[in-house]
Design a protein that fits this description.
11 helices, 8 strands, Rossmann fold, 43% helix
Length: 278
Protein backbone atom coordinates (compact mmCIF):
# COMPACT_ATOMS: atom_id res chain seq x y z
CA UNK A 1 0.00 0.00 0.00
CA UNK A 2 1.46 3.35 -1.07
CA UNK A 3 1.14 6.60 0.84
CA UNK A 4 0.85 9.77 -1.24
CA UNK A 5 2.62 13.04 -0.54
CA UNK A 6 3.47 16.42 -2.07
CA UNK A 7 6.62 18.50 -1.78
CA UNK A 8 7.23 22.09 -2.84
CA UNK A 9 10.50 22.54 -4.72
CA UNK A 10 11.80 25.59 -6.60
CA UNK A 11 9.43 26.11 -9.50
CA UNK A 12 7.26 23.03 -8.94
CA UNK A 13 5.24 20.88 -6.56
CA UNK A 14 6.19 17.20 -6.65
CA UNK A 15 3.81 14.30 -6.11
CA UNK A 16 5.57 11.29 -4.58
CA UNK A 17 4.62 7.90 -3.15
CA UNK A 18 6.21 5.69 -0.48
CA UNK A 19 5.93 1.91 -0.17
CA UNK A 20 7.48 -0.81 1.94
CA UNK A 21 10.29 -0.83 4.49
CA UNK A 22 14.02 -1.42 4.42
CA UNK A 23 16.89 0.43 2.70
CA UNK A 24 15.72 3.54 0.89
CA UNK A 25 15.39 3.25 -2.89
CA UNK A 26 14.37 6.10 -5.18
CA UNK A 27 12.84 5.01 -8.49
CA UNK A 28 12.76 7.69 -11.16
CA UNK A 29 11.82 8.08 -14.79
CA UNK A 30 11.55 10.89 -17.30
CA UNK A 31 8.94 11.42 -18.52
CA UNK A 32 7.37 8.33 -16.91
CA UNK A 33 5.28 9.10 -13.84
CA UNK A 34 4.94 7.19 -10.56
CA UNK A 35 1.92 5.24 -11.77
CA UNK A 36 4.00 3.46 -14.42
CA UNK A 37 6.45 2.24 -11.78
CA UNK A 38 3.78 1.06 -9.32
CA UNK A 39 4.06 -2.69 -10.13
CA UNK A 40 7.86 -2.58 -9.87
CA UNK A 41 7.66 -0.55 -6.67
CA UNK A 42 5.22 -3.07 -5.18
CA UNK A 43 7.63 -5.90 -5.97
CA UNK A 44 10.62 -4.03 -4.55
CA UNK A 45 8.75 -2.94 -1.43
CA UNK A 46 9.22 -6.41 0.06
CA UNK A 47 12.85 -5.51 0.73
CA UNK A 48 13.08 -1.71 0.38
CA UNK A 49 11.42 1.53 1.26
CA UNK A 50 10.56 2.56 -2.31
CA UNK A 51 9.91 6.17 -3.28
CA UNK A 52 8.45 6.95 -6.70
CA UNK A 53 7.39 10.34 -7.99
CA UNK A 54 5.99 12.30 -10.91
CA UNK A 55 8.84 14.34 -12.44
CA UNK A 56 8.34 18.09 -12.55
CA UNK A 57 5.73 19.06 -15.14
CA UNK A 58 4.45 15.50 -15.50
CA UNK A 59 1.12 14.13 -14.22
CA UNK A 60 0.60 15.25 -10.60
CA UNK A 61 3.68 17.50 -10.36
CA UNK A 62 2.70 20.93 -11.73
CA UNK A 63 5.27 23.61 -12.52
CA UNK A 64 5.08 27.36 -11.97
CA UNK A 65 6.34 28.13 -15.48
CA UNK A 66 5.05 25.68 -18.10
CA UNK A 67 7.58 27.06 -20.60
CA UNK A 68 10.61 26.18 -18.48
CA UNK A 69 12.57 23.25 -19.85
CA UNK A 70 13.05 20.16 -17.68
CA UNK A 71 16.75 19.31 -17.54
CA UNK A 72 18.51 16.39 -15.85
CA UNK A 73 20.15 18.87 -13.49
CA UNK A 74 16.81 20.34 -12.38
CA UNK A 75 15.36 16.90 -11.88
CA UNK A 76 18.46 15.84 -9.92
CA UNK A 77 17.94 18.77 -7.57
CA UNK A 78 14.35 17.60 -7.10
CA UNK A 79 15.64 14.19 -5.99
CA UNK A 80 17.91 15.89 -3.46
CA UNK A 81 14.89 17.78 -2.15
CA UNK A 82 13.02 14.48 -1.82
CA UNK A 83 15.90 12.99 0.16
CA UNK A 84 15.93 16.03 2.43
CA UNK A 85 12.16 15.79 2.96
CA UNK A 86 12.57 12.12 3.89
CA UNK A 87 15.37 12.94 6.33
CA UNK A 88 17.72 10.74 4.33
CA UNK A 89 21.44 11.37 4.00
CA UNK A 90 21.62 8.93 1.07
CA UNK A 91 19.70 6.33 -0.89
CA UNK A 92 20.03 3.84 -3.68
CA UNK A 93 18.60 5.10 -6.98
CA UNK A 94 17.10 3.23 -9.93
CA UNK A 95 16.62 5.39 -13.00
CA UNK A 96 14.95 4.27 -16.21
CA UNK A 97 15.62 5.92 -19.58
CA UNK A 98 15.45 9.68 -19.02
CA UNK A 99 15.35 8.95 -15.30
CA UNK A 100 18.69 7.18 -15.69
CA UNK A 101 20.07 10.45 -17.09
CA UNK A 102 18.61 12.23 -14.07
CA UNK A 103 20.47 9.75 -11.87
CA UNK A 104 23.76 10.39 -13.68
CA UNK A 105 23.36 14.13 -13.12
CA UNK A 106 22.49 13.50 -9.46
CA UNK A 107 25.63 11.43 -8.83
CA UNK A 108 27.86 13.96 -10.60
CA UNK A 109 26.41 16.90 -8.64
CA UNK A 110 25.70 15.26 -5.27
CA UNK A 111 27.85 12.10 -5.06
CA UNK A 112 27.48 11.64 -1.31
CA UNK A 113 23.69 11.38 -1.58
CA UNK A 114 23.68 8.15 -3.65
CA UNK A 115 25.00 4.76 -2.51
CA UNK A 116 24.35 2.82 -5.72
CA UNK A 117 22.91 4.19 -8.96
CA UNK A 118 21.43 1.68 -11.37
CA UNK A 119 21.03 3.61 -14.63
CA UNK A 120 18.90 1.46 -16.94
CA UNK A 121 19.42 2.33 -20.61
CA UNK A 122 20.15 6.08 -20.38
CA UNK A 123 19.66 7.76 -23.80
CA UNK A 124 22.97 9.66 -23.65
CA UNK A 125 23.15 10.19 -27.40
CA UNK A 126 26.13 12.53 -27.17
CA UNK A 127 28.38 9.54 -26.45
CA UNK A 128 27.66 7.93 -29.82
CA UNK A 129 29.94 8.35 -32.85
CA UNK A 130 26.90 9.59 -34.83
CA UNK A 131 25.90 12.12 -32.16
CA UNK A 132 25.51 14.97 -34.66
CA UNK A 133 23.11 12.89 -36.74
CA UNK A 134 21.21 11.92 -33.59
CA UNK A 135 20.85 15.58 -32.60
CA UNK A 136 19.35 16.32 -36.00
CA UNK A 137 16.90 13.44 -35.60
CA UNK A 138 15.85 14.78 -32.20
CA UNK A 139 15.31 18.24 -33.68
CA UNK A 140 13.16 16.66 -36.39
CA UNK A 141 11.04 14.90 -33.75
CA UNK A 142 10.48 18.14 -31.86
CA UNK A 143 9.66 19.98 -35.10
CA UNK A 144 7.18 17.26 -36.01
CA UNK A 145 5.48 17.73 -32.65
CA UNK A 146 5.06 21.48 -33.20
CA UNK A 147 3.93 21.15 -36.83
CA UNK A 148 2.09 17.83 -37.00
CA UNK A 149 1.15 16.97 -33.42
CA UNK A 150 1.80 14.32 -30.81
CA UNK A 151 1.03 11.28 -32.96
CA UNK A 152 3.57 12.21 -35.62
CA UNK A 153 6.19 13.01 -33.00
CA UNK A 154 5.73 9.70 -31.21
CA UNK A 155 6.02 7.69 -34.41
CA UNK A 156 9.23 9.50 -35.37
CA UNK A 157 10.53 8.99 -31.83
CA UNK A 158 9.77 5.26 -31.80
CA UNK A 159 11.29 4.80 -35.25
CA UNK A 160 14.47 6.64 -34.26
CA UNK A 161 14.70 4.67 -31.00
CA UNK A 162 14.29 1.31 -32.72
CA UNK A 163 10.93 0.60 -31.13
CA UNK A 164 9.26 0.37 -34.55
CA UNK A 165 10.50 -2.29 -36.91
CA UNK A 166 12.87 -3.97 -34.51
CA UNK A 167 12.12 -6.77 -32.03
CA UNK A 168 9.10 -8.87 -31.29
CA UNK A 169 5.98 -7.00 -30.38
CA UNK A 170 7.35 -3.59 -31.38
CA UNK A 171 4.51 -1.09 -31.85
CA UNK A 172 3.55 -0.10 -35.37
CA UNK A 173 1.12 2.62 -34.29
CA UNK A 174 0.19 4.62 -31.27
CA UNK A 175 -2.49 3.26 -28.93
CA UNK A 176 -5.82 4.87 -29.57
CA UNK A 177 -6.80 5.26 -25.93
CA UNK A 178 -4.32 7.90 -24.73
CA UNK A 179 -5.84 9.86 -21.86
CA UNK A 180 -5.82 13.64 -21.59
CA UNK A 181 -3.01 13.29 -19.05
CA UNK A 182 -1.02 11.09 -21.45
CA UNK A 183 -1.40 13.73 -24.15
CA UNK A 184 -0.39 16.54 -21.79
CA UNK A 185 2.65 14.59 -20.58
CA UNK A 186 3.62 13.80 -24.17
CA UNK A 187 3.42 17.46 -25.13
CA UNK A 188 5.59 18.37 -22.17
CA UNK A 189 8.11 15.69 -23.13
CA UNK A 190 8.52 16.78 -26.73
CA UNK A 191 8.44 20.53 -26.12
CA UNK A 192 10.47 20.83 -22.92
CA UNK A 193 12.28 17.62 -21.99
CA UNK A 194 13.51 15.49 -24.89
CA UNK A 195 16.34 17.77 -26.04
CA UNK A 196 17.71 18.42 -22.56
CA UNK A 197 17.72 14.75 -21.65
CA UNK A 198 19.31 13.39 -24.81
CA UNK A 199 21.93 16.14 -24.99
CA UNK A 200 23.18 15.62 -21.46
CA UNK A 201 26.86 14.69 -21.46
CA UNK A 202 27.65 12.50 -18.44
CA UNK A 203 30.58 13.72 -16.35
CA UNK A 204 32.47 10.45 -16.57
CA UNK A 205 35.37 11.70 -14.44
CA UNK A 206 33.01 12.68 -11.62
CA UNK A 207 31.09 9.41 -11.91
CA UNK A 208 34.31 7.40 -11.62
CA UNK A 209 35.93 9.51 -8.90
CA UNK A 210 33.03 9.74 -6.44
CA UNK A 211 31.97 7.29 -3.73
CA UNK A 212 28.84 6.19 -5.59
CA UNK A 213 28.76 2.77 -7.22
CA UNK A 214 27.39 3.35 -10.74
CA UNK A 215 25.83 0.38 -12.54
CA UNK A 216 24.64 0.58 -16.14
CA UNK A 217 21.64 -1.64 -16.79
CA UNK A 218 20.87 -3.02 -20.23
CA UNK A 219 17.94 -5.07 -21.49
CA UNK A 220 18.58 -8.61 -22.64
CA UNK A 221 16.24 -7.97 -25.58
CA UNK A 222 17.35 -4.40 -26.32
CA UNK A 223 19.97 -5.11 -28.97
CA UNK A 224 17.93 -3.34 -31.67
CA UNK A 225 17.49 -0.15 -29.63
CA UNK A 226 19.60 2.99 -29.68
CA UNK A 227 19.63 2.90 -25.88
CA UNK A 228 21.56 -0.37 -26.09
CA UNK A 229 24.30 1.51 -27.91
CA UNK A 230 24.29 4.41 -25.48
CA UNK A 231 24.39 2.06 -22.49
CA UNK A 232 27.34 0.13 -23.90
CA UNK A 233 29.16 3.38 -24.72
CA UNK A 234 28.74 4.72 -21.20
CA UNK A 235 29.70 1.43 -19.54
CA UNK A 236 32.87 1.34 -21.63
CA UNK A 237 33.80 4.84 -20.52
CA UNK A 238 33.18 3.93 -16.90
CA UNK A 239 35.26 0.78 -17.28
CA UNK A 240 32.56 -1.49 -15.84
CA UNK A 241 30.49 -4.13 -17.65
CA UNK A 242 26.75 -3.45 -17.90
CA UNK A 243 24.32 -5.60 -15.91
CA UNK A 244 21.75 -7.44 -18.01
CA UNK A 245 18.08 -7.10 -17.04
CA UNK A 246 15.10 -9.09 -18.33
CA UNK A 247 13.25 -7.74 -21.33
CA UNK A 248 14.03 -4.62 -23.28
CA UNK A 249 13.84 -0.90 -22.57
CA UNK A 250 10.62 -1.33 -20.61
CA UNK A 251 11.45 -4.71 -19.11
CA UNK A 252 10.19 -3.65 -15.69
CA UNK A 253 6.70 -3.35 -17.21
CA UNK A 254 6.47 -6.70 -18.98
CA UNK A 255 8.65 -8.85 -16.72
CA UNK A 256 8.21 -7.07 -13.42
CA UNK A 257 9.00 -9.81 -10.92
CA UNK A 258 12.12 -11.01 -12.75
CA UNK A 259 13.29 -7.44 -13.26
CA UNK A 260 12.77 -6.62 -9.57
CA UNK A 261 14.79 -9.66 -8.53
CA UNK A 262 17.75 -8.69 -10.73
CA UNK A 263 17.59 -5.15 -9.38
CA UNK A 264 17.40 -6.39 -5.80
CA UNK A 265 20.44 -8.61 -6.32
CA UNK A 266 22.33 -5.80 -8.00
CA UNK A 267 21.68 -3.46 -5.09
CA UNK A 268 22.60 -6.16 -2.58
CA UNK A 269 25.93 -6.60 -4.33
CA UNK A 270 26.61 -2.97 -3.46
CA UNK A 271 26.00 -3.54 0.22
CA UNK A 272 22.91 -1.36 0.79
CA UNK A 273 22.76 -0.42 4.41
CA UNK A 274 19.98 0.14 6.89
CA UNK A 275 17.01 2.35 5.99
CA UNK A 276 18.00 5.99 5.59
CA UNK A 277 14.51 7.48 5.64
CA UNK A 278 13.53 9.25 8.75
Amino acid sequence: MATHHTLDVPGARLHYEIRGSGPLLLVTGAPMAAVHFAPLADALARHHTVVTHDPRGISGSPVDDPEQDSTPELRANDLVALLDALGADSADVFGSSGGAVTGLALVAQHPKRVRTLVAHEPPVLELLPDAAERRAVTDDIVEAFHKEGIGAAWMKFMTASGLVGGGDGAPTALPGDLSEQDLADSARFFAHELRGTTRHVPDVSALKAGPTRVVIGIGAASGHLVTYRTSVALAERLGTPPVEFPGDHGGFLGRTEEFAEVLRRTLADGGAGEPSAG
